[in-house]
Amino acid sequence: MEKSLARYIWKNTRLQQLWILLVVAASMVPYFLSFDLPKQIVNGPIQGDGFEGPGARQTFMHIAYDIPLIGHVEFFKGLELNRLQMLMALSLVFLALVVLNGLFKFYINTYKGRLGERMLRRIRFELIDRVLRFPPAHFKRVKSAEIATMIKDEVEPMGGFTGDAFVSPALLGGQAITALAFIIIQNFWLGMIAAAIVGVQAVVIPRMRKRLLELGRQRQLTARELSGRVGEIVDGIGTIHGNDTSNFERADIATRLGRIFSIRYDLYQWKFLVKFINNFLAQVTPFLFYAIGGYLALQGRLDIGQLVAVISAYKDLPGPLKELIDWDQMRQDVQVKYAQVYEQFNVEPLIDSRIQELATAPVAPLTSALVVTNLSVSDDSGARLVDHVSVEIKPNETVAIVGPNGSGAEAFAEALGRLVWPDSGRITIDGQDLLDLPESVTGRRISYASAESYFFHGTLRDNLVYGLKHAPMKEPEYDGKAAQEYKWHVAESQKAGNPTLDLNSDWVDYNAAGANGPEDLLKAIRPVLDAVMMSQDILDLALRSTVNTEVHTALGSHIVELRTSLRERLTAENLDAIVVPFDFDTYNTQATVGENLLFGTMKRPLMNNRRLAGHPYFQQLFRETGLSTDLYTMGLEIAENAVELFHDLPPDHPFFQQLTFMTADDIPTYQALLQKLQGKRFEDATPEDRASIIRLSFAYIEPRHRFGLLTQTLTDKIVSARKQFHENIPSDLAELIERYDINRFTASASLMDNVLFGRIAYQQADASDRIRIIMGELFDALDLYDDVLSIGLEFDVGTGGKRLTGVQRQKLNLARALLKRSDYFIFNRPIPALDQRIQDQITHNIIEGLHEEGKRPAIIWVLSNAKLAEIFDRILLFERGNLAEAGNYPELSEKNGMFKELLS
Question: Where are the transmembrane segments (predicted)?
């Protein structure tokens, strides 16, 4: 990186800076003329200088020059105008100069802004590029929040300064010098007064502002540290809650905020002191002009036009001068910021940019052995993790690495995956150092997975195929306005030094996954998900998701067939009672009172329970059917039963899991509400209290809650109200509520609800699990499993994959590595969160899956269970950073050594 910001700016924008400086120089001509013109207007047509006689006229716009070797040349002989005409003509010229000066300013400021934004884009990209090239060990010493803050906020002023770096001193200095020169021309002593004040401002104010710069630097550092600390709190929130340290963190944050407040308060005090002195000096000068200039005018040594012109010129002098002083402060401020950015991002050694060059062509397989020679790896404290290990791993070999935690096995695998750099020794393939190989080779032909995983905000599918997004495989097609916008973006990217790669391209390397394109990618994904035993997880996510039938047309068209097949399957297995189907003429005992009344689903977020309850039609229906009183009475009984049964139980008692209508925190609220409503009729309760009570009855399910409140009379009344509701439903409400129809797909319901078209009986043990298994088999039988899997893969994993469980994250990380179909697979205890039996099963699945159809990539696996080493060709046993033993399973298991101890 360039150490000087000015040099960095000049290096990247010198042609644009030279052009804008030429424009600034040209703008000084009309700027000077605009100062002289008021004097001509006042002295000429207004005071009558040159128009003494009646009918006197003067020549306007006479343009003639004496050119050497040519002589006198007249370009325009001018116009003869009287006093009034001359006044109007000069005034129009003054107006034209105002417009011209404004246009110059508009062009200069717009050009500066665009130049600054390009430079901001350039420097942000270069900083992120450097982050991508940081050595792996450096990330252990920096906070991600601080890096992000620097790139997002701290370089922002540098973009604004870029346009001003050379233009502002030229423009503002030129304007100030022009105004000052004009004043001196009009009157020497007034000019000297102005020059003296300008000199004081130019010397005193910048010296006073040095304190401001130091305070600004301290503010910036403390704000960045605060950002990093907040990031630590967010990332470590579980640790904070688990150790009761939230108040310690509050104290830490309060202390930091107090320090920032103190710095900012000092900054404001000093800032406004400097502004006071600067404004005072600026206002003293007009006083001197009026006093001394007025005296000279009275003495006849200065005419009125000159005095007006001097005052007018000085009016334009403080502005550029103040802005020039502000520019100098900004220059020093951004130089301080840039110095900090330089210090933070000038990391050595960076990964060579050639290693990360884009490679669009297919990468040849690695057919040579992985040779480890005298490898040593240390941690940040200098402790030796791997000590002079030498080994050779053949391309088609399966190698189990065994050893207790801290034995060096994990660090050895990290070195093979390029996650750590060796202190000494080498890892080579075909004579090339692993660290010198392009990432286009190692990132495609070597797969690495460990228990530590990170997933980007997006869908499961995006994160699963992330390892296939090496280069744009197919450019998008643009036409019309989109094509013009794309060309403009490409041109701007080139001017800002950014790559012209299009994010809208198809980046997925389908061939690397064994697919021909997006249409058959799922056929490559499914075996991988089966191998890591994640297919059922994704099926469950799909069943809980809503389905866009415009995308998944097959599911929408087969929904009736699926419902019929499910009923037939349940009948064949004597499981009819496990699901109670929806019937418009019958009350569904396994559904809530609200679901029975609505007999459909609401299109959220356009419609929800609160909006429906407040709709005039719904309220009218309640009044006409009398359900409002019935459900209010029912809600009171629910509240009384719940409070009586659960008010003495602790909040974490498992009984509260059965209360879908009330939480442990709601018990005291309803206890107080019951006391308030005791002895009151429905009509006497407030609308808010009625809503709170009726809400309880809406969530009631008799077989689940078993309070015995649903009588046959009440269920018949609800079914009757349901029919009345749908019979006369207004159009605005009908558009937001989808009525259940056995012959139609319900778009706003989940896939599981669509297939069930009913509710699972709560009395049946393991009913949900049995239904899911049956549904999976039905999807397979109707060739719909890939469609359902695709829906599950659209699940948003959240920030860092936090919407997934720890087990799911480890499975997904393993699946992502498997999908690349590499030549070398390195698995560094990838699934420790799983049960040992499941780990063993997944290990078997992966080895069998990778070695089928004549393919045999190398597999290097750091095992948690030494007994699994039996299925590997060779075993490497690590102890205290050393390669203690090596050989096959029969050899090491019979030998009285450490491996035999691990087996026992």
Answer: 15-33, 87-108, 176-205, 280-298
- Contact criterion met (CB below 8 Å) for 766 and 513: no
pLDDT value at 411 more than 90: yes
Beta strand 882-887 with 79-81 is unpaired
Global pTM reads: 0.77
Q: For residues 260 and 253, give the distance between their C-alpha atoms in angstroms, rounded to a whole number.
A: 10
Q: At what angle do helices 521-531 and 535-543 cross, to 10 degrees?
A: 120
Greater model confidence, 853 or 44:
44
In one-letter notation, the amino acid at residue 430 is D
What's the pLDDT score for residue 201?
Answer: 66
CA 758 to chain centroid = 40
User: Distance (Å, rounded) from C-alpha 530 to C-alpha 844?
Assistant: 12
CA distances from 700 to 542, 596, 644, 710, 893 (A): 27, 11, 17, 9, 62
Contact 455, 799 (CB under 8 A): no
For the stretch 471-494, pLDDT in tens is: 888 888 888 888 888 888 888 888
CB-count exposure of residue 876 (10 Å: 0-12, 13-18, 19+)? buried
> Cα separations (Å) of 578 from 240, 594, 771, 773?
44, 21, 9, 14
What distance separates the 2 farthest-apart alpha carbons in the chain? 131
* Alpha carbon distance 810, 833 (integer Å): 8
End-to-end CA gap in the chain:
57
Q: Tell me the C-alpha distance between 735 and 186, whole Å.
A: 79
Q: Cα–Cα distance between 104 and 110 in angstroms, integer?
A: 10
Residue 316: pLDDT over 60: no
Quick: pLDDT tens for 565-602.
999 898 988 888 889 999 999 999 999 898 899 898 88
> Can you give 108-165 as a three-state secondary structure string?
HHHHHHHHHHHHHHHHHHHHHHHHHCCCHHHHHCCCHHHHHHHHHHHCHHHHHHHHHC
Nearest Cα to Cα of residue 152 among 161, 141, 144, 142: 144
In 3-state terms, what secondary structure has residue 795? coil
Closest CA to 516 of 550, 474, 554: 474
pLDDT at 415: 94
- Give the three-class secondary structure for 469: strand
As a whole number of Å, the CA-based R_g of the chain is 40
Nearest to 225 by CA among 259, 267, 268: 259
Residues 6+ apart with CB under 8 A from 881: 384, 385, 386, 387, 389, 407, 408, 411
- Determine how many CB atoms are found less than 10 A away from the CB of residue 268: 11
Interatomic CA distance for residues 622 and 725, integer angstroms: 10
The Cα-based distances of 383 to 379, 387, 399 in angstroms read 6, 10, 26
Phi/psi of residue 695, nearest 5 degrees? -60, -35
Q: Is 322 left (phi over 0), alpha (psi -120 to 50) or beta?
A: alpha
Q: How far apart are CA 114 and CA 882, in angstroms?
A: 59
Indicate if the alpha-carbon torsion angle 484, 489, 495, 499 is positive or negative. Answer: negative
Give whole-number Cα distances, 613 to 246, 621, 685, 696, in Å. 40, 11, 17, 14
Task: Give yes or no for residue 282 having a pLDDT over 70.
Answer: no
User: What string of DSSP letters covers 808-850?
Assistant: HHHHHHHHHHHHT--SEEEEES--TTS-HHHHHHHHHHHHHHH
Distance CA 631, CA 626 (A): 9
